[in-house]
Amino acid sequence: PPQCSLLGLWQNDLGSEMNISAGNNAGKFFGTYLTKVSATHKPIAVSPLRGSQQMGNVKQPTFGFTVTWSFTDSTTVFVGQCFVDDKGKETLQTMWLLRKKVDSIEDNWQATLVGTNNFTRL
Ligand SMILES: CN1C(=O)N(C)[C@H]2CS[C@@H](CCCCC(=O)O)[C@H]21
């Protein structure tokens, strides 16, 4: 059965495109994230991501990664698992936390968004 590799090009239902370009045998990987939508009104740019995944004899590994947005001061962390269906189609089922930068600690309570998001191969 095809092992679910994170390497390659992925997209989600928000139109974001993610390219996991390289990983090492300790499970570390890195890549880029190109979002098509943003909560800010700044011009969107490609942003770097770094993460790690379970290695060893794992068919459907769990993983986590961080996107440090290059065009705004927020950060998103993703956690999830790669699944392969009986036709070999892979999906990344994830949840994320988006931490926006706020100007004062009084606004800290409203600074973190949470959501679910799934990726399929581009
Ligand atoms: C497009 N998105 C996407 O593909 N997500 C899974 C969610 C969680 S990261 C967020 C985009 C944040 C962009 C930077 C900002 O607006 O602060 C949204």
Structural class: mainly beta
Report the β-strand fraction as a percent range: over 45%
Provide mean pLDDT, rounded.
94
Approximately how much helix is present in the residues?
Answer: under 10%
Q: Per the principal axes of the C-alpha atoms, what is the gross shape?
A: elongated
Q: Tell me the Rg in angstroms.
A: 15 Å
Strand order of the largest sheet: 1-2-3-4-5-6-7-8
**What's the β-strand tally?**
8
Are there runs of 5+ residues with pLDDT below 50, and where? none
Q: What summary fits the major beta sheet?
A: 8 strands, antiparallel, barrel
Distance between the ends = 20 Å
Name the quaternary structure: single chain
Instruction: Provide the succession of SSEs.
Output: EEEEEEEE
What compounds sit in this structure? the ligand CN1C(=O)N(C)[C@H]2CS[C@@H](CCCCC(=O)O)[C@H]21
Number of helices: 0
Word description of this protein:
- It is a single chain.
- The chain has 122 residues and is mainly β.
- 0% of the residues lie in helices and 52% in strands.
- It has strands at residues 8-12, 17-23, 28-34, 47-53, 62-68, 75-84, 90-99, 112-121.
- The chain has an eight-stranded antiparallel β-barrel.
- Strand 6 (75-84) and strand 7 (90-99) form a beta hairpin.
- It binds the ligand CN1C(=O)N(C)[C@H]2CS[C@@H](CCCCC(=O)O)[C@H]21.
